[in-house]
Sequence to fold (317 residues):
Amino acid sequence: MTTKIAIVFSVLFLLVSCGKHEARHFLDSTPSGAGVWTELDELVGNTPMPVPVGGKYILRHPGCQDMPLEISEAKPLSFVEDGKRFVATVNLKPVPMASCTILCESTPTGAEVFLDGESKGNTPLELRGLAPRNYELTFKKADREMVVEHVEWKAEETVRSVHVKLPSTMVVFYRNKLQSEPNNLLHYADLGHHLAQDGELQTAVNVYKTGLRLVMGKKSSENAYRLWAEVDRLVTVQYVYGDEAAIRQARQLVIEMLRELFDEYPNSDVMAFYFSYIDCADTLKRRNEAQRIFSLAYKKWPQEKRMANYIKRGFVP
Fold:
């Protein structure tokens, strides 16, 4: 019957070290095969092996934490009888698996994140304590297109940032509408509106420009007021589409668009074009440019009521 026998090392040492007796006391480890190293970093053997002489050792095994081991009278080993041998077994702790973190962000925020199909929360979100393997991230949000990202870990990585943009379903909708109704100015207004709210300012202005060319070229005029209104909103910030830097960027993009349209249609009689140009240039503190456009507009429509408002603001007829 197997029994545990605690043996004081001083007695054990006499039995092991004496040449007249065969070693019956062994040191083993779980997992077996651990190297037994001295404090001087010398290998004295691998488990299972006869118990080494008294002293301090370190047991090392791949995939396990180093285990300090002291053999002395003060710290005797505990043996278990195993056939004709007595074995003291040291349990080695596995090295903790490397953990990784995925930082999940989305535009817009608040998207639900699924890790390999399991919901983990909403962005911004930190997924901690992950094993370093490949993952599939899925981002979902109402009125947005679903986005799937595959994260492939590199050996040296511990943190990965994943930032996705979730396309608006309305953007997709109005793009499709323009495919079938390319002269409908409402579609340009609505598409640009949703793009601007998503922070896609350059793309929004490009959409407006395409629609305004139809107006300036007399190819479409119905609901043109709505398209001009959306352009003016970028200048006057009538809805939130970004911080101060985004507002400056939007105004700059609008005036560049208006300059380009002016070069293309220098003799245009579209009144709304002149008003938008004057207001945008004045907002950007380009008063000389605004005055030049006002003078052209005043020659065309001196009796227009809005001209009187510009004169009150300091513009000269």
Q: What stands out?
A: The chain has three domains: 4-91, 100-165, 169-312.
